[in-house]
């Protein structure tokens, strides 16, 4: 059975990602595990959890990770962040196309929209520039040895979902999945929130998304 997450609406706007943790704590927003190992040849399972809330006009995401090593080579938005220590949110609002919002451990983002892996339109850079992010790690001072614990928070304006036509997240029901990967880490891994039942690692599988409901 597919998992479901209920995304609570916060009464007050959170304008700074550095304040997201405190706002989510105050609202008692619980964490969810990203802990499904879908492919036996990649058994490594770092500790990963996320939580989400919204303010109508923005989605707030907060991830916490503990892993044996970190990498953050991508420092320009829409770069190959999946090769780094990366957390990801994929969502479809219409079951025809889905948008990925991928973020490495220092807050660099990749986002695109399309019906499948091969036919994707990158999000305009000006929209990504409006996404507030705050990370506990800095690109110029990554720990050389692990284990490493890190946290990243994002405030994603509804306009970031540029192909959805949404004006507000309130009352919206959609399909989604959350992931943790690190293609070029010493131990590559591919974890998901909702299970994926295909032979090889592939996050671009909207048929295996779970449910997300925005209050």
Tell me what the structure shows.
By secondary structure, the protein is mainly beta. It has one domain: Immunoglobulin-like. 6% of the residues lie in helices and 38% in strands. Strands 1, 2, 3, 4, 5, 6, 7, 8, 9, 10, 11, 12, 13 and 14 form a 14-stranded mixed sheet that branches. The longest helix is centred in the first third of the chain and has 7 residues. The model has no long low-confidence stretch (mean pLDDT 97).
CATH class: Mainly Beta
Count of individual domains: 1
**Largest sheet entry:** 14 strands, mixed
First-to-last CA distance:
22 Å
Could you spell the SSE succession in H and E letters? Answer: EHEEEEEEEEHEEEEE
Radius of gyration: 16 Å
Give the topology.
Elements: E1 4-9, H1 20-26, E2 32-33, E3 36-37, E4 47-54, E5 58-67, E6 86-92, E7 98-104, E8 109-114, E9 121-122, H2 125-129, E10 132-135, E11 148-157, E12 173-181, E13 190-192, E14 210-214
Parallel strand pairs: 1-4, 1-14
Antiparallel strand pairs: 2-4, 3-13, 4-5, 5-11, 6-7, 6-12, 7-8, 8-9, 10-11, 12-13, 12-14
Write a concise keyword list for the protein shown above.
38% strand; 215 residues; globular; mainly beta
Please outline what is shown here.
This protein is mainly beta. It has helices at residues 20-26, 125-129, and strands at 4-9, 32-33, 36-37, 47-54, 58-67, 86-92, 98-104, 109-114, 121-122, 132-135, 148-157, 173-181, 190-192, 210-214.
């Amino acid at each position: 059975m597919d998992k479901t997450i209920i995304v609570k609406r916060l009464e007050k706007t959170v304008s700074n990602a550095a304040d997201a943790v405190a706002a989510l704590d105050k609202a008692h927003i619980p964490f969810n595990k990203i802990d499904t190992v879908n492919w036996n040849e990649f058994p490594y399972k770092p500790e990963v959890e996320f939580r989400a809330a919204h303010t109508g006009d923005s989605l707030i995401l907060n991830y916490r990770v503990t892993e044996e090593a970190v990498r953050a080579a991508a420092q320009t938005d829409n770069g190959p962040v999946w090769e780094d220590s990366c957390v990801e949110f994929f969502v479809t609002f219409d079951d025809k196309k889905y948008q990925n919002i991928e973020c490495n451990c220092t807050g660099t983002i990749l986002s695109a929209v399309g019906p499948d892996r091969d036919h994707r339109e990158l999000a305009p850079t000006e929209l990504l520039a409006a996404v507030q992010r705050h990370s506990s790690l800095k690109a110029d001072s990554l720990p050389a040895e692990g284990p490493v614990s890190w946290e990243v928070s994002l405030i994603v304006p509804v306009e970031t979902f540029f192909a959805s036509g949404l004006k507000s997240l309130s009352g919206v029901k959609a399909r989604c999945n959350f992931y943790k990967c690190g293609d070029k880490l010493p131990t590559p891994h591919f974890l998901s929130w909702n299970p994926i039942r295909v032979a090889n690692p592939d996050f671009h599988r909207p048929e295996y998304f779970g449910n997300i409901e925005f209050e």
